[in-house]
Amino acid sequence: MTTFTRSISLALKGAAHAFEVFPAAILNALAFAIVTVIRIELDWPQQEPYNFLFNCLHWSFAFGAIFSLAVITASWSRFKDKKAFYLSNLLGIAGTGVAFLLLYFFGKAAPDPNISRFSVLSMLAVARVTAAILVSFLAFIMLAGFPKEQSDLSRSFFMTHKAFFIALIYGSVIMAGVSGVAGAVQALLYHQMSSKVYMYIGTVTGFLAFTIFIGYFPDFRMDRIDPHREIAQKQPRFVEVLFGSIMIPIFLALTAVLLIWAGKTLWGGMGSSFVRLSGIASSFAIVGIWLHMMTAHHETGLAKFYRRFYPIAALIILAFEAWALFTQLEKSGLKITEYSFILLWILTAAAAVLLILIKDKAYPVIFSLTCILAVIWVLPIIGAHALPVTAQVNRLENLLTEQAMLQNGEIVPAVSEPDKKVRESITDAVLFLAYSEDAKLPAWLDKSLGRSDIFKAKMGFEQTWPEPDGVDVPGGYLGLSLTLPAEAVDISDYRWSVLLREYYVRSGNDEGYTTLKGDKGTYQIYWIINEKDNIPTLKILLDERVIIEQDLNDYLDRLTKKYPPGKSAKYVPSFDDMSLKLETPELKMLLVINNIDINVDPSNDIINYWMNPYALYLSEK
Predict the structure, then answer these.
(1) Which of 310, 409, 436, 619 could connect to 495 by a Cys-Cys bridge, CB 3.0–4.6 Å?
(2) What are the tens digits of pLDDT across the range 556-566?
(3) CA–CA distance, 355 with 317 (Å, rounded to integer)
(4) CA distances in angstroms from 600 to 171, 303, 478, 603, listed in the order given
């Protein structure tokens, strides 16, 4: 038998063995696959009423599979009694049931009326079950590192990576092969074959890949020494080269860049947005700790240097990141990004200190701290969904009180327009709170304040945003997306409603128009898209005579001045913003835009527009 054939045979045997060793985990995975098949079979109109139920089942089975993996591994590695194994499987199944009940009865969120009529699973519920899955998975990795005579956490951590990529490779090959056969059947034998066949193949492949993943792990029983454990934990030569000779130098280069940034910050300030900095810092923290664990047993000089150098460099960089954090908190207060950054900062700082003091013995403590912080992130009162809301409510209350806009528990319009910085801060806080899911807001603050027209009526000034900083996004993109708000509008001044057809300039024909017969003659109404920049032009002919031909450049200029394109701003336009009144000697018109999307490439000075008209209302004079 060749090495390749032997490896395939071992993988398949391991998958079959997984049914015996981790039955509760396999049952949960199988139930997950069955629910997926049911959802595939049901088309969306039939599935929509049950979407909440299916999401609860999917998340519950996903949690149950990983939780069962952890508790069964605990029973194998800690107890010799067979009863412990049976109890652990029952506990895994019970965990699935508890997760489902919690999600079904406490995880509902009111649906967005513009998207669905039925209840949906709240983002908070999803975050909590995700945290539970993460904690269970980290617990499994820690438990797989026992006994100490045969393994440790860094070896167990690598073994989990190895199992994942082996399952991914086998799953990809199975998926590609079976899909190819299905494609041949569809092309040659049965042309009417449903595309759902490929979804079924993907579902079955995913289930098989999961069984291969958990089947790759060795026998964790405490009274046995499985020779496969040494093979599973051993890093192949190419992996040692990848980590030691490629990834470590790259990461050291990133560390050098961050250290130079720290020095530059002393002289010239931050120079980068906090969102961008937090992303880089998060990558540095997570990858740095991960690489430290992956190279824990490497004996090369570069690996030893990295394990000594990274914790010290991390502490230096963390000090400057703390400075950036305090600057951001003074600017816009605590939000979810800042909150998450604080937890990650705590984790990285603690990990760096522990790695300096106790070296590789710090890994279990780092894993445990990660679990604790993941739980804190989703807790009531102090979690990411609650504490930032409280902070922003206090921030907004202070801003309104300073401007004498909060009186007797009600918001009153400003007597005089506040400074631009104050208007920007009030707008920022209002929009954050208005779009926070399940946020507990004071009686004086209504979520409808997120709408620009209501905001202006209540506050006495329009929503205001800071100017986008083009220097901070070299080579990046700025975006703007506006959607017509849902509200009733008086159109009694207009006689007709015309649905416009898109007509592209380069097509060279005159078929893309809408015909309207009025009292003064026959109108041909064109909505012309210039394919160079996608800016539309409204053109109307009356008995073959052009009475108006106007592009929307001026309209777009006014709109982007009011709503500057940005990376993450949430703008809520009013009806007036999304409409344009036009007149000719013959017609009075109201053009209503359904949605507008603008993408800006600052580095290449390119702006792309997409405008979708809702209707053109008009009447003859």
Answers:
(1) 619
(2) 888 888 888 76
(3) 16
(4) 40, 43, 5, 9
